[in-house]
Amino acid sequence: MMPIWTKSGKKHAVTLLKVQDCHVLRYVSKEESGGKTAQLLVGGKNVSPFSKPESAHQIFKEAGVPRKQKVTTFNVTDDAIIKPGTPLYAAHFRPGQFVDVTAKTIGKGFQGVMKRWGFKGQPASHGQTKTHRRPGAISTNKASKVYRGKKMPGKMGNIYRTSFGLKVWRINTIHDIIYVNGSVPGHTNCLVKVRDSKLPTCKEYNKNPPFPTFFADGDEKLPEDLFDEEIFQFTDPSVSY
Amino acid sequence: CRASGDGKPAKFQPPPKPVIIDKQKQRAERRFLSPEFIPPRGRTDPLKYYMERKDMIQRRKVFNIPEFYVGSVLAVTTADPYANNKSNRFVGICIQRGGKGLGATFVLRNVIEDQGVEICYELYSPRIQAIEVLKLEKRLDDNLMYLRDALPEYSTFDVNMKPVSHLDHEEIPVNKLQVRMKPKPWSKRWERPKYNIKGIKFELPESKMKEAQKWSQPWLEFDMLREYDTSKIEEKIWKEVNEGLKK
């Protein structure tokens, strides 16, 4: 995470996400997926093919791509279908867009009810016998059962969570890095799924993206760094009011 | 000239060429790499530090961040939307330099009208318009937070102080000042060996000093997992930063 300053002098914290060897793997049609839209399988981050059996390499061989560590699905409309095997770059997103980032949260292991659900526990003194971090009562007398989904101790973390509506401040086209506002679930160097935001307030900011994606061998030549309009660039002199 | 014993005219011996010893070059070139360039120990991708360093070099090309240490007196002018001239100048002694990368900070302390004031500035913030080093010197410690519990005379610096000149090739003077403290209680127990403070003149009784040594951890200096040798990393970063600034 890094600080970033706007032209008015305000500081924002920013997370760097690197787009590492992302390729489109397969096209799944609407009938095959059983959903409302067609799907595209996308894989990221090359990894050695020797730790998995040959049967697992089927998808990658068809796309002509080395084995990927993670494969995710994106729901796409019919006009945004991309041929399997095309690489995806950071320039697919532009500064000023809003983005949802999904990742597996940091695993905390088996945790008690105070850390996992934020219960208050019991006082440390004044006669409490062996009860300081326990849940206390778990149900009422009338119910005579414990409801499903009761908050109790258990394994915490290591589940997929999404942060919605994160602004993209800056894109680096050479190293394929996306600078995204705020924090992102997961530990450092973990795999992360970045998707156009589905929040209704972010619809107008997400217009005019590179459609269906940014092609490196196309005619568009992008500069090394793409900045949002409000960012203070370090080539400018200091801010004054 | 020597007397010609053999009668022949003495061959002209040119005088020995004077050997010029350039004392300036002899003194090893003082290399100062600002501490925020050195990456901390961790599992982050070095690419992240490389990107941060590019931004830091870019900012340093436009805005001069001088060399300074903890214990030097600085004057910082920042842009302030609510001030009279839209700018605000603060003079103080640097008591702490923290943070790595673009978020590096330094804390300046001064006593203005009997009120101690500490301001934490970000080195790379665009609101800073000028940093001048009024007095470049080092102290015996890396962290002068104990000045909060010292007598206020050690933290007062004249706001209109003239900059003390410092030649390029001279070594940075180390001020071996031993500071006198206010009576206890202090904000932290500075006599304990964990803070390792050399710049305080402790006027505590011997029994208290001996009791403070109970918290010493003499095994820490032999702990190999705590060693972080930055010499090679510093070399590489020094070259990178110099090349970046020359362009």
TrEMBL record, chain A:
SUPFAM superfamilies according to UniProt: Translation proteins (SSF50447)
Gene3D superfamilies listed in its UniProt record: Translation factors (2.40.30.10)
Statement: the UniProt record of this protein carries the keyword Nucleus: no
MF-aspect GO terms: structural constituent of ribosome
Pfam name, any one: Ribosomal_L3
InterPro entries, A to Z: Ribosomal_uL3, Ribosomal_uL3_bac/org-type, Ribosomal_uL3_CS, Transl_B-barrel_sf
Keyword terms of this UniProt record: Mitochondrion, Ribonucleoprotein, Ribosomal protein, Transit peptide
Tree of life domain: Eukaryota
One annotated Gene Ontology cellular component of this protein: mitochondrial large ribosomal subunit
Intracellular or extracellular location(s): Mitochondrion
Example GO BP: translation
Similarity annotation: Belongs to the universal ribosomal protein uL3 family.
Listed name of the protein: Large ribosomal subunit protein uL3m
TrEMBL record, chain B:
Gene Ontology CC annotations of this record: mitochondrial large ribosomal subunit
Compartments reported by the entry: Mitochondrion
Main location: mitochondrion
Keyword Transmembrane helix among record annotations: no
Keywords: Mitochondrion, Ribonucleoprotein, Ribosomal protein, Transit peptide
InterPro entries: Ribosomal_bL19 (IPR001857), Ribosomal_bL19_sf (IPR038657), Translation_prot_SH3-like_sf (IPR008991)
Pfam families according to UniProt: Ribosomal_L19 (PF01245)
Biological process (GO), any one: translation
Gene Ontology MF annotations: structural constituent of ribosome
SUPFAM superfamilies on file: Translation proteins SH3-like domain (SSF50104)
Record's keyword annotation contains Signal: no
Family assignment from sequence similarity: Belongs to the bacterial ribosomal protein bL19 family.
Protein name, as recorded: Large ribosomal subunit protein bL19m
Organism: Oxyruncus cristatus
Gene: Mrpl19
